[in-house]
Amino acid sequence: MKEKINDKIELKAEENIEYLKELLQDNSDMIFRTFNVGKWKASLVYIDGMADKLLLDHYVLEPLMLASKDIENVQQIKDNVLAVTDMHEVKKLSEGVNAALSGDTLMFIDNLDCAYVIATRFWPARSVGDPSSETVIRGARDGLTETIRFNTALIRRRIRDTRLKIKPKVMGIRSKTDVTIMYIDDIVNKEVLKELEHRIEKISIDAVLDSAYIEHLIEDNKYSPFPQIQSTERPDVVAAALYEGRVALLVDNSPFAIIVPTTLPNLFQSPDDYYQRWMYSSVVRFIRMLAILISLTAPALYVAITSYHTDIIPTKLAYAIASSREGVPFPAFVEAIFMELFFALLMEAVVRMPRPIGATIGIVGGLVIGQSAVTAGVISPIMVIIVAITAITTFIIPNYEVATAFRIVRFLILIASAIIGFYGIMIGLMILLIHLVRMKSFGISYLAPAVNTNIRDLKDMYIKEPISNLKERPKYMNTGDKIRQK
Amino acid sequence: MEDKGKIEDFGLFTTIVVAIVGVGIFSCPREVIDKVGSDACIVTLIGGIVVFLLLYLIYRVVKKNNFEDITCILQNNFGKVLGGIFAITFSIYSIFIVSLGMREFAEVIKLYLLRRTPTEFILMITILTGTYLVRGEIGDLVKFNEISFWIMFIPAFVVIMFSAVNADFTNILPVLNNKPSAYFRASKYILFCFGGIEIAYLILPYVKNKKNSSKVLKKSIGFVTIFYLVIMIFVLAVFSKAQGRILLWPTITMVKTLDIPDTFIEHWEGIVMAFWIFFYFTTFVNSYFFSSEIVKNVLKLKETKLSSLLIMPIIYVIALYPENIAQIYTLQFKTIPILLTAIFLFVVLPILILFVGKGKDHVRGKSDEI
Q: What is the ipTM of this complex?
């Protein structure tokens, strides 16, 4: 799989060009330009569409052409003639070729055994816009983009500390994707950092197309529906994570940064919690936990109560439910499965459809079909209510991956409740709890700080205390520097 | 093994509490009130003190042997073969008690929640769920205990508060009108309520803050005693001793009397039953893990996964053995071999180890093997 590139840089510029033309044949966007500089020949190699031609014309070729007569030796060209700030030498041809394939310009000059790489990366890029997957009421509206350098800039604006480290890596044997590891040196948990670097070293894949690839290759437990690594489009979330001692990975071509280690309480938080007033944030956190419980158990409870434990609910309510289920040909469990299936189909369809039609289908599917099904007597109205409540509560969770994980779990709990009623629901929830308790993310318990509890950490977990009380960093993270504010 | 030195004080506290507080809560009040009437509170206190002493014995044994695990202690002090036999006895005893408890639990579930489901199925599901947790490390078990603690005791507190509405606290009087022998007989039952303290053998070696551990143990026994005391008082207060000795499971009946008007749910016992699954389950899974650890260490297997698979069918068979609830209670309380084993394991053995055992020196060598 590894490509074979000659590493030696010939002393004659034209020989290098001949070799590269052969290596990169059938590539119509590679541009080769040979010209004279004084007595010597020089050549440029770049990719049309990825390199900034204007920079090359004005600040490389123009000074070279103008100073052509005055140059006495080739060493002078780099120091005295080229009017570019970002350039460096490479001794190996393969490094130069990789740079050229990334958008830089490769320059060969006769009698030099090294080549120059001039930074000219400039390609059509999306401008910084709203992060589409995480909206907040109050807070910055810039989101990460597909260009890694813009992303590091957006994050660096929020951490102007000398101890911020941005370590580069190249991953993907064919894609050679730029990846950076970001952390704050004196805060970060060194063990997590070491473990992360160790796992990244082990990856040997041909292409890394998105941060998701790396996320799935380094996570602890791939057989769990729950994400163990947080992915976010917001630079303020990344910065906040770095301040807590976590490590962020940015991947070129991906607007999603990934943050390790991640705990489930992290995934339940939204940046809004920190930008709104603390009382409201505490209430919202409580609502989220309630919502999770409802979303997991609502259809299962309906099935369990109507099939097994009819004596739990008040008699009047039992009569109301029974009469609304009059004439429905299916048992409660089959109804519930139908509605779950229908809802899942609707959701997938709405996501994939072009935007104008998506909203319409949502209304048509939800309201019209639901109402018609009830009128036709195929499902009972109570089921529609339950599905609606379930749908709303599922998406209160800020993180999409956790919401989808809970959808899967809900389905399983529904099946358990159909088999053994209430006990099935409790066993299902207990199995979920055991599963979460056993999970770890890079050595930190997945449910920290709900387990291994420390009073200090509870200030930001079930409720959110005012920021003046949050004086220390989370204890379960074992950070270097422990104090946030005095 | 990698979790050595990782369990915090709160983890120790919750583990002891949830391992002890189990289904005893259902059946104990009836037995005790039957024997001593309204002196059940005093008997509970006595039971608490006795258990405290037993736990202190355990702590001293573990401390003297430099916080090694139970198999190591037994094998160091009594030799490999005899120590192994004692360890397996421990394991069998724990499993026996917990399997009978599981049968009782399944009967309660059948009565209140699932009248038509076969008992075998309920047992199987519970055992499999327990096995899923036991396949993890001890750190996972402690984390589960920590969360279960809150899930168990917050609703319990709520239920108790609501029950106070129906309570007539004068029913607790008169006190101290029983013969001393009656207290003695009642203590037998209350001590089974407090069963589960052997979990301390499992947890103490892994505690982070060893100096604090005796204080934490005291606090946990205090908590359990107070909790049982409160339950006894409320059962007496709500039902008075005449009815308390008739009702099979007075605690549950007490919950049945809850009536919060105009809410969504009329009969609360189903809901409360759901929370009380945790009461039994934590006791079960802690004992199961303890036994698996012992079997693993004695047979020198590498992981608890294998030993738990060995124990799984044994639990199932023992749980299915009694034919009805009465037989469960006979087996638990009235069988002489069981009583003798219990006394041996909890009283005789620790005293032997403390006074006769070899202590720290030989332990270092053995522990390197494991």
A: 0.88
Provide the residue ranges of all domains of chain B, joining segments of one domain with +. 9-358
Correct CATH for B9-358 of 1.20.1740.10, 3.90.230.10, 1.20.210.10, 3.40.50.720: 1.20.1740.10
A350-382 confidence digits (pLDDT tens): 888 887 777 787 777 777 888 888 888 888 888
DSSP three-state, residue B52: helix
Which chain A residues contact residue B143 at CB under 8 A?
Answer: 437, 445, 447, 451-452
Query: C-alpha distances in angstroms, B118 versus A402, B270, B316?
Result: 36, 18, 14
pLDDT tens track for A130-182: 888 888 888 888 899 999 999 999 999 999 999 999 999 999 989 999 999 99
A326 in the same domain as A439: yes
Last residue of a domain, one of A76, A101, A118: A118
How many Cα atoms sit within 13 Å of A376 on the Cβ side?
9
Q: pTM value?
A: 0.89
| A174-213 residues labelled b (16+ CB within 10 A) or e (exposed) | ebebbbbbbbbeebbbeebbebbeebbeeeeeeebebbbb
Q: Are B106 and B277 in contact (CB under 8 A)?
A: no
Show the domain range for A182: 148-262
Whole-number Cα distances in Å, A43 to A31, A33, A81, A91, A408: 10, 5, 15, 16, 59
Interchain CB contact of A374 with B (< 8 Å): no
**Residues A326, A256 within the same domain:** no
Dihedral, CA atoms, A15, A19, A21, A25, nearest 10 degrees? 160
Nearest chain B Cα distance for residue A322, angstroms: 16
Reading the block at residue B324, the tokens are 């009805």
- B270/A312 Cβ within 8 A: yes
Q: What is the domain count for chain A?
A: 3
CB-CB neighbours of B167 under 10 Å: 19
**Is A181 a domain residue?**
yes
Q: Return the residue in B111, B114, B137 with the most chain A beta carbons within 10 A, the one to mutate for interface testing.
A: B114
Could you tell me which residues of chain B have a Cβ less than 8 Å from any Cβ in chain A? 8, 10-11, 109, 113-114, 117, 121-122, 125-126, 129, 132-133, 136, 139-140, 143-144, 146-147, 263-267, 270-271, 273-274, 277-278, 281
| A444 three-state secondary structure | strand
The answer to whether position A464 is within a domain reads: no
CA distances from A109 to A6, B50, B218, B365 (A): 18, 92, 82, 71
A433/B147 touch (CB, cutoff 8 Å), yes or no: yes
Whether residue A289 sits in one domain with residue A252 = no
pLDDT tens for chain B, residues 1 to 370: 455 668 888 889 999 999 888 767 766 777 777 777 777 788 888 888 888 888 888 888 888 888 888 888 888 878 888 888 888 888 888 888 888 888 888 888 888 777 888 888 999 999 999 999 998 888 899 999 999 998 888 888 887 887 777 667 776 666 677 777 777 777 777 777 787 788 888 888 888 888 888 888 899 999 999 998 888 888 777 776 666 666 666 666 666 666 666 555 566 666 677 777 888 898 899 999 999 988 888 888 877 788 888 899 999 998 888 887 778 777 777 777 877 888 887 888 888 887 776 655 444 444 444 4
Q: How far is CA A290 from CA A252, A284, A335, in A?
A: 38, 10, 25
In a mutational test of the A interface, the residue from B147, B284, B286 whose CB has the highest number of chain A CBs within 10 Å is B147
Asked if the structure places residue A313 within a domain, the reply is: yes
| A72 belongs to a structural domain | yes
Residue A420 and residue A296 share a domain: yes
The residue from A206, A229, A262 where one domain ends is A262
In angstroms, the separation between the Cα of residue B272 and the nearest Cα of chain A is 11
Cβ contact B245:B34 at 8 Å: yes
Nearest to B188 by CA among B321, B348, B34, B19: B34
